Amino acid sequence: MKKWHIVLSGIILVFGAFLAGMLLASPPEPHDHDTVFQVSTINALLQAECDGVMTFGDLKKHGDFGISTFDALDGEMIAIDGNFYQVKADGQVYPVSDDMTTPFGTVTWFERDIEVPVRNAGNFTELTSVADDALPSGNYFYAVRIDGIFPYMKTRAIPAQEKPYPRLVDASAHQSVFELYNTSGTIVGFYTPGFAGGINIPGWHLHYITDDRTAGGHILDCAMVNTTMYLDISPSFRTDLPVSDSFLNVSLDEDLGEELKHVEQSG
Predict the structure, then answer these.
(1) N or C: less crowded end of the chain, CB within 10 Å?
(2) Looking at the domain assignment, is residue 138 inside a domain?
(3) What is the pLDDT of residue 30?
(4) How would you list the strands of the sheet with 83-87, edge to edge?
């Protein structure tokens, strides 16, 4: 009888220690709101790595705000306030389902750190100049959001490609270009420091979506007056690389700056 009493007491002690450990354990870590999360690299996308490698359901676990493309380059993605949208080459905007995939994208949990008035920016270059001057340092990643009424917005969307995929510079030659006038909407995007060239697009990469969710795309040019830019500083950056035979063999150390410049500015 004494033996069973000792065994039972031991079980109770172990179970009690387990419960105490559960109660004293730290709560689950909240989302890391100071990290920019990225799928793959821009140099891989430039070299036709266009198969979707992450679902948007999984991408949403890393942020509620961001931009990306889709499997086979089928349009431009804008994520804002946790809602994800696809602007396709037909000019229409569609909701993004969790099972859709992306070959390249960037998201974060957006929180306003810096407020910058934009009195007048007549084009994309003037806007980025204002943004550059507002950065406390060019060595960090930043998310950027601008809400307002925009006198002019020029955007693009690349149509879905077929295998064997062309290089991005060739696919962009068949992009659809849209010109929007006096629309109300939101600019969503990121600043990538120069040292991360080849990983993402150095400088500013911006997308746009209208408030009524009927138009948008990758920004080629824009104009604005009396708006406010909000910046979110991100001292942490993480990228998940594809696991595929094609990615294993692609050369990521090439200087593709000229191709990237053509892709970003064409149209």
Answers:
(1) N
(2) yes
(3) 57
(4) 93-95, 83-87, 76-80, 65-69, 105-108, 35-39, 236-240
